[in-house]
Amino acid sequence: MKTNQPSIQNKQSSQLKGFVLKTLLLIVIVFLLDFTIGTTLQYFYFKQESGFLYRTTYAIEKTKAPVLIFGSSRASRHYNPNIFSNQLHLSSYNVGHDGNFILYQYAVLSAVLKRYHPKLIVLDITRGDFAIRQNDYERLSALLPYYKGHSEVRPIVQLKSPYEKIKNLSFIYPYNSLLFSIAVGNAEFNKQKMKDIDGYVPIEKIYTGSMATADSLPNYPMDSIKISTYQSFIKDCLSNNIKLVIICSPYLFKATNTDNTINLAKAIALKNHIPFHDFSTDTSFVNKNQLFADSIHLNNGGATIFSNKVIDKILPF
Amino acid sequence: MLFNSFQFIIFFSIVTSVYFLLPYQKRWILLLLSSCYFYMSFVPVYILILGFTIGVDYFTGIAIENAKNGQRKWFLLLSLVANIGVLSVFKYHNFINQNFTGILNCFHVSNPIPYLSILLPIGLSFHTFQAMSYTIEVYRGNQKAEKHFGIFALYVLFYPQLVAGPIERPQNLLHQFREKFQFDLDRVGEGLKMMLWGFVKKIVIADRLAIYVNTTYNHTGQHSGASLLLATIFFSFQIYCDFSAYSDIAIGTAKVMGFKLMVNFKRPYFAQTMAEFWKRWHISLSTWFKDYLYIPLGGNRLSATRWYMNLMVVFLLSGLWHGANWTYIIWGALNGAYLVIEILTKKIHFPFLSSQLPQKLVRVFKILLVFVLSSFAWIFFRANTVSDAFVVIKKIASFKGPLFYENPSMLIYSFASIFLLLLVEMKQEFYIGSFSFMHHKSWIVRNLTYAVLIITILLMGVFDGGQFIYFQF
C-alpha cells in the first residue's frame, strides 16, 4: 500500500497538469475564434448604411439634428421628422426604437449629449413604460455593440445582468443573434427594402380588426429604476438647456382610466415644468381605425395628422 | 441558481476544485453545504420544507429497519403521508380547492376553505419522489437504512439533480457518497463534454425555440393555424432540449466529481412506438412509476381490462405529477390512451406495410407517427388552459391565416438549431461508433469541436432565456 501511494499521487498530479494544459489550449482556441469572428461581425455591423440596426448607430454616433424624437416603435411610426423639419425649420431625426423604452432612450440621449446638444427633444411615453418587466432589460441587448466604444452607454447595459462586464469580454457576444441581420443589413436589396425617412418608419396599412369597447387598464407595480431613469432624462435635458416635450401618442381604443405610467410621467414632468401632452384619449384618433395600422400604431396617414398636431402644441418654438 | 447562468459556472468551478482538494471523508460536508446554498439561492426559506422531508424520511427509514414486521408498514405510511402531504399542500391545495369551489358553486354554496398564496418550491416533485423511493426501498429490504444523517440529507439535496432530476434510487446513489473518487482526466473530460452539449441544447436550441412558442402560445387567439402548428412542432423540440439539457448538465456535473447518475433520455423522438417513447423519455420518472405504482397495481399480469386501467392510472398520475392543472391531466390521459390503443392494435396486421414498402420507409413512418402523437399531446402540456389547447387544435385543423414571424432571423435560427440537434442525434442513433468530432483521436479536432460549440453559444445562444421548464414541477 505504501509503495502505491506516491505512484497514485504522481498519476493524479500529471492528470491535473494535463487538464490545466488542455483547458489553457481550449481557452486560446476559443479566444482566437472569438476575436476573429467578433471583429469581422463588428466591421460589418458598423459598415451598414441602412436598416434597423443602422438607425441605432446613426442615433448614437452620427445624427446632429437639432430636433430629436425619442420613444419606442410607437415613436418611430408616429412622428414624421420631415413635417417637423418643414414647420420648425430645423432638421429632425426620429431615434425611436422597436421594443425599447426609457432605459434605451436614456442611453441614446447620453451618447447624443456627449457629441452635441439638440435644441428640442420630443419624448414619447407609452402605457406601461414603467411597469416591472424583465423583458425590457433583456431588450437592452440592442445597445451591446456600443458597449465597448461608448462609456456613457455602459451603465445602462449593465442593468441587464450583473455579469455584463464579463460577458462583454467576448468579441462575439455584442453581436449575439445578429449574424443574419448583419448579413442582410449589408446586402444591396436591403437598402431599397428597409427605407426610413430620417428614422421614421411609415406603415401603409389600415386596421381592419375588431373594434373593442372601452376597457379598463390594469394596475401594476412600477419599476423604480425606470422612474429614476425618466427623471434623469428630464434632468439632463434641463441642465443642457434643451427644450423637452413629453407626449403620450394616440391609441385606437379608449380606456376607462388613465394608465399608471402616464399618470406618474405627467406628474413628474409637470413638477419639472416640462410640457406633457396626452393624446391617448384624443377624440380625433380614438376609434378611427382608418388612421391606425394596428391597435397601438398609427399608419402613415394617422402619423401625418398626429405630427401636425404635435407641432401645433410645440409652436411657437 | 440556474444551470445556464454565470453564477452556476462560478459555483461549479469553486465547488469542484475544493471537492478534489478535500480528503474524501470530508467531501460530503462540502457537497451538503454547497447543495443547501444552491437550493437557497432560489427561495431560501423553502430549505425548511426539504429539512422536514429529510428529517421524517431519515427517522422513518431507521424505524422501518428496526421495527417488527407488523409495524414496518405504519412507518412507511407515515413517511408517504408526510411526503405526499407536503406535495399536496404546496402543489395541489389550490387546484383541488378551485375545483371544489366549482362543484359547490353548482349548488350555490360558497367554499369556506381559503386559497394559499404560496410559491411552489422549485423541484418539489423531484426531491419528494426521490425521498419516497428511499423509504420504499428500505421497506422492501432492498436498501439498508442510512444512519449517517449528513449523507442521507445529501442524498435528497445533492445539487446536480436536486431540482429537476434524474430522480435517483438509493441503491444507485447513496453508496457513492462514501466512495473515494480520484481526479480522472478521462472522466472529468466526459463530464465536461456532457455539460457543454447540455448548454448548447438549452441556450442555443430550447431557449431559441421558446421565443416563438411563447409568443404564439401566450396569445393563441391572435395567431393563425400555421403559426400554432409551427409553434407546436417547435415546442416538441423545445421541451426535449430544455429537459434533456438539464439532465445532461446534471449528469455531467456529477460525473466530473465521480458520481454516476442514471441516464434520463435516449433520443425519444426516434422511438417507433409510444411504448418505446416512454422507455426513452424521462426514464427516471417512468421507471419510478413503474417500480412503485404500475407493478404494485398488478402491471400487465392481470386481466386485459385491469392492465389498461393500470396504464391509465399511471399516466393520469404522471400528468398530475407534472402540474396541478387539467392540461397536464389531459396530457397524461392522452399518453395513457396512446399506449392502450397501441396494445389493442398491436395484433392488427398491415400486409402492405410489412411486405411492399421498404423497411426503412416503414421505420421513418413509425417515427413520424410517434412524433405527431406526442406533439399532439404536448399541445395540452404547453397550453395555458384547456380551452386554449382546444383553440390551438381547432386553428391547426383549419390551417388558415399567415405564418407569424417578427423577422426572418427568428425562424432561421430556430430551424438551424433544430437541424443541429437532428444532425447530432441521428449520428448518435444510427451511426454509433462511426466518426465523432467530440471523441476524435486527434486532440486538434476535439478541441476545435469544443471551441466551435462554445462559439455557437456566443453567436446563436439566447442569453436572457428563462429557467428550465421542469423546475416548476
Describe the structure.
- The complex is a heterodimer of chains A (317) and B (473).
- Chain A has 317 residues and is an alpha/beta fold.
- Chain A has a single domain, classed as 3-Layer(aba) Sandwich (Rossmann fold), CATH 3.40.50.
- Chain A has 13 helices and five strands.
- The longest helix of chain A has 44 residues, at 4-47.
- The mean pLDDT of chain A is 89.
- By secondary structure, chain B is mainly α.
- Chain B folds into two domains: 6-180, no CATH class; 186-460, no CATH class.
- In chain B, 70% of the residues lie in helices and 0% in strands.
- Chain B contains 18 helices and no strands.
- Chain B has helices at 6-21, 27-40, 47-66, 69-106, 124-140, 149-157, 170-173, 185-217, 225-257, 274-280, 283-297, 304-322, 326-345, 351-356, 359-382, 386-398, 408-430, 443-460.
- In chain B, helix 3 (47-66) crosses helix 4.
- Chain B is globular.
- The A-B interface holds A 8, 12, 15-16, 18-19, 22, 25-26, 29-30, 33-34, 37, 134, 137-138, 141, 160-163, 166-167, 170, 172-173, 175-177, 179-181, 184 and B 6-7, 182-185, 188-189, 407-409, 412-413, 443, 447-448, 450-452, 454-455, 458-464.
Task: Give a summary of the structure in a few sentences.
The complex is a heterodimer of chains A (317) and B (473). Chain A is α/β, with parallel strands linked by helices.
Largest interface: A-B, 34 and 28 residues
Helix content of chain B: 55-70%
Number of helices of chain B: 18
Count up the domains of chain B: 2
CATH class of chain A: Alpha Beta
| Average residue-wise pLDDT of chain A | 89
| CATH topology heading of chain A | Rossmann fold
The domain count of chain A comes to 1
Helix/strand structural class of chain A:
alpha/beta
Query: In angstroms, what separates the terminal alpha carbons of chain B?
Result: 16 Å
Topology pattern of chain A, helix = H, strand = E: HHEHHEHEHHHHHHEHEH
Amino- and carboxy-terminal Cα gap of chain A: 93 Å
The strand count of chain B comes to 0
How many separate helices of chain A? 13
Low-confidence stretches of chain A at least 5 residues in length (pLDDT < 50)?
Answer: none
Taking the sheet with the most strands of chain A, its summary is: 5 strands, parallel
CATH architecture of chain A: 3-Layer(aba) Sandwich
Rg of Cα set of chain B: 23 Å
Give the helix level of chain A as a range of percent.
40-55%
Q: Which regions of chain B have little confidence, pLDDT < 50, spanning 5+ residues? A: none
Question: What is the CATH superfamily label of chain A?
Answer: SGNH hydrolase
